[in-house]
Amino acid sequence: MARWFGSAAVLVALVGLVGIPLYHLGRVGTEELTGIGPGTLERAVAGSAIFNTAWTGLAVAVIAVAVGVWLAFVTERWHPMRSGWLRVAIMLPIVVPGFVSAMGFVGAFGTGGLGDDLVGFAIPGIFGPLGIVMVLSIEAMPLAYLIVVAALRTRAEPDLERAARVHGASGRVAATTVVLPLLAPALLGSAALVFVASINAFGAPAVLGTPAGFATVTTRIYQDLARSARPEAFSRAVLLALLLVAVALLFVLVAERLLTGMGTITRTAEPPGQVIHRCRGRRAAFVAWVVVLVATVLPLVALVLTSLTRAVGLAPVPANWTTANFAEALQGRFAGALGRSVVLSVAAAVVVMALGAAVTAIRHGRFGRLSRTAVLLTFAVPGSTLAIAILLAYGASLRGTLALILVAYVAKLWGVGHRIIEGSAAAIPPDLYRAARAGGASGWTATRTVTAPLLAPAILGGGLLVFSFAFHELTMSSLLYGPGTDTLAVVVLNLQQLGDVPVSAALAVLLTVPLLVVAIPLLVGRRRWRGGA
Question: Distance of CA 35 to CAs 46, 86, 98, 228, 236, Å?
């Protein structure tokens, strides 16, 4: 009975959250495509935005994977014994929302920013493609780093590295001629995933690209839906959404094939650890720390100083500090947006983890495998596309309500909760459940008293992760909000675009600090559980 109830709940959720929205998107997209004449097709699909998205995505993939590979070698090969805290620092960009990173980047390296005030250094052209590529590369670098680290631990053959060193190869030569070829599937798979993440990004292109007139697919969709009432704008938004989902699913399937098909090499020894001179390893770790601090910590420091400074143009020194920006940020509609973000994030975490547990409970059947695939592919669907699909499906009845945004959050993040619970459930010995059943316990009692307590840490950690993602979500929220339903991320973006820099920085700090409070202890705890130094 419990399994039947779980299957029914998953089926209803899949139809409501995935099937109906994507059906409406496909139907409307087909209608729009057939109704566009040949002469207007090029204008409808916004060729310049597609070109901008494609080349910046490729640039981000190359840069993020290259930096991720170098950092992986630093922490896993060249200086592995003292890299625990460096690993934690490398993961920080995952926690910080993309548009907050972009705002901090401007505050740190833009004209009149922290770097300009301290040492007279500013990046010219930070508003435009250069700034977008730099910020998106920093955002995507932890993803590439994690994949390469996993591949180093499963694909790299230590004896081959030692053989190359014995025959006179330097550490650099051994890495490039022996290790990197073995990591090729992981490098290509991580590049595909980074490309998908970059073409789906909205926050950094909105903050850095819109002022410079540099449009990407996601910002063009936002402008067409939020800033235009022309029929051709709606047609363009739907067609661009369909293009995004097609490209994203293609690259995700390619990445999954590469990463799951690369297998694991049978090790003949433990990893060699220090493969270059110890002094050089220390220097590499020092350079890595400098890169990470400049790319991730300095922008956050600049954002905090901007939020404390009385007005734009004043030096961020204690004499010009004030808390008035935070006081204004916590008043009126700003406080309401903060409350709505908290409510939506908590609700999304509860619903997502419940649905994730339901899919895990039925994972062994044919329908369970199909459900798992559908849920994970939904996570790969771009937020802009999913928002338009949900708007087409439920906009008539839920437009202007928090429920519409909650539906989008749950549909997007369901796969996150499921993957976390399923990974933990796979580590639980099945004999524990069988022993409880053999002792006379019912299926529900065995689940409640044996399985659930063992899954509690994963459910709690997954819930916190879903809360963090939902709390700073911007792409779907910016397309689905209405009067009285704007979230904190939407308010921050709107204020930033209106030019209220100090208050928008204060709101961005209020948005980011709770995420850091949640994430840093989890990252540190993960490091200690693994025995990192």
Answer: 17, 55, 36, 19, 12
309 φ, ψ (degrees, to nearest 5): -85, 140
Angle between helices 20-35 and 231-261 (to 10 degrees): 120
Counting Cα atoms < 13 Å in the Cβ hemisphere of 209 gives 26
What pTM, to 2 d.p., does this model score? 0.83
Residue 274: pLDDT band by 50, 70, 90 thresholds?
very low
- Distance of alpha carbon 313 from its chain centroid, rounded? 33
Cα 334 from Cα 339, distance rounded (Å): 9
- What is residue 272's predicted lDDT score, i.e. its pLDDT? 47
For residue range 475-527, what is the model confidence (pLDDT) as tens digits? 999 989 988 899 989 988 888 887 778 888 888 888 888 777 776 666 665 55
**DSSP state, residue 309:** B
- What domains does the chain contain, in order, with CATH numbers? 1-21+323-533 (1.10.3720.10), 47-215+270-311 (1.10.3720.10)
Write out the two tokens for 470. 């939902």
Q: Is 195 helix (H, G, I), strand (E, B) or coil?
A: helix
- DSSP summary character for residue 15: I
